[in-house]
Amino acid sequence: xxxxxxxxxxxxxxxxxxxxxxxxxxxxxxxxxxxxxxxxxxxxxxxxxxxxxxxxxxxxxxxxxxxxxxxxxxxxxxxxxxxxxxxxxxxxxxxxxxxxxxxxxxxxxxxxxxxxxxxxxxxxxxxxxxxxxxxxxxxxxxxxxxxxxxxxxxxxxxxxxxxxxxxxxxxxxxxxxxxxxxxxxxxxxxxxxxxxxxxxxxxxxxxxxxxxxxxxxxxxxxxxxxxxxxxxxxxxxxxxxxxxxxxxxxxxxxxxxxxxxxxxxxxxxxxxxxxxxxxxxxxxxxxxxxxxxxxxxxxxxxxxx
Length: 305
Ligand code: SF4
What we know:
Blueprint: H1 3-22, H2 37-43, H3 65-70, H4 112-124, H5 130-135, E1 143-144, E2 150-154, H6 159-164, H7 171-183, E3 192-195, H8 209-226, E4 230-234, H9 236-242, H10 249-252, E5 256-259, E6 262-267, H11 270-275, H12 280-294
Parallel strand pairs: 2-3, 2-4, 4-6
Antiparallel strand pairs: 1-3, 5-6
The structure holds iron/sulfur cluster (SF4).
């Protein structure tokens, strides 16, 4: 075998080894076959000195790493595992107020009654809703514990509420009292009760969207002052407004929602329960969800209202 053959054998072997390293044919690597001069003669024609050398397989550039990766889909990068958040406990619920939406500073508990009183005075002088102002006897800002763990939010004052300036004191209010005391085992003065509008809509109609827009800021400020741990929304207008949804009550109730980070339950309005007593069992289930979360023992009280 002359020197040319030996050089060609060496080059072909290097080329085959290079292809095998790059995994071009994805075949398992095995021993390379012996290369004979006749194989080379048939695969690589000898060049004549008279002709310019023809490009052969050994003259082609080596495959680059980038070339082989271009034909193989890159593996997705693994993200580092996210740390597991600690379970929510009553002690950590306060941190939920750090979520966007409640930007007001926390008012110390001892200053909250005065902050609510000042806000009630502002409400009493409000004239944003022409129709409601013309119709009202009193504004009804809300009442209760200024540091309540639980806040009830209804829709708007009725006739008795308008006459007295107090929320939920008519027939529906009596049922709400029963839900709070007989159902949940709390006292009315333990909770805070308010509405999304502070003036009575005529003929007990639902408040108009513009009236809700005018008034909702007062409720938001009350919530920011009181910082309740839990909200209970009574009826469709309150639930749809605070949860910013048009879902029907049947789909809103019976599960936990959040309003600006505050764990929230929506349930039927007491006035609806007076007209539809069979729905009381739903409300009792909703109250039990609240009681469980608040750590209130659930006894057989025969239903909320
Ligand atoms: S309903 Fe609210 S916004 Fe409208 S006039 Fe009464 S307090 Fe003002």
